[in-house]
Specification:
- The chain is mostly helical and 303 residues long.
- The chain has helices at residues 3-18, 21-38, 40-47, 78-114, 116-131, 134-143, 153-156, 161-174, 176-189, 193-200, 205-213, 218-241, 253-260, 269-295.
- The chain is built from 14 helices and no strands.
- Helix 4 (78-114) crosses helix 12 (218-241) and helix 12 packs parallel to helix 13.
- It starts with a helix and ends in an 8-residue tail after the last helix.
Length: 303
Amino acid sequence: MTAGSISALWLPVAHRFTRHRAAVWSVAALGALAMLALAAPLVAAALGVDPAAADLANRFRPPSLAHPLGTDELGRDVLARLLFGARVSLAVGFAAAIATALLGTAIGLAAGYFGGRLDAILMRVTDGVIALPLLPLLIVLAAVDPSKLGLPRAWAEAETASLYRVVIIVAVLGWTTVARLVRATALSLRERPFVLAARAQGATPWRIMRVHVLPNLASPIVVATTLSAGHVILLESVLSFLGLGIQPPTPSWGNLLANAQELVWSAPLLAVYPGLLIFVTVVAFNFVGDGLQDALDPRAIRD
């Protein structure tokens, strides 16, 4: 496929996406958040603060040039901690969403293309996972001590262990939506003339799935991944709020919100800032997903 044909294919999609104003503004908001998160060390250096260092002499300082959003109960700069928390929360959201998409795509593609008994088994497993109460199960799995599962204690006690654990747990339990979407699309694609022609020419099932079926699954996969990213960030925030997600001293929006719950009357802004960022990010991902769904809808080509 030439560069010109790729451009001709995606230009109408981009045009339809730009007509979804909420999605465009959401992309801008998410881009700004991502840039600020990446620039968190530079912001902390410019302010001359260490987001993890306590300064009890400067507890609950109001906003100022030195501390644009003030300080928390330990004298730490709130802006710096929010930006470093954004790095963790956004990284968890993107990583878990991608892992979920990969696992769901593999299961849904195998079930939809091969059909038969394999399809029945995989879909019954999918139905079983969907039937599980998600949040209670996440809480139980997050509370399990990894060192008791045979994992090295050094890894289980590392600062990043809680981050990896949240990503793995969410991916293992959150792949079902992608799998069902991919299966439904693969069931229709396997009977299309170009797939039948490839099969008649002797192409192996793996080549057909990789070359002919998988590229046509891009639309549902992209939409489902975008929508799940916001859902993952919300789940991480809930787990961290309950003390089972990202563990201090590593900041995330969820544990920042948890730390502020006892100060909601004396310093309410400490709870407002992370709560507002979680709300904006989740809503923005949902708007982007809606915009992509409208832009990639084949029926929209006739408009």
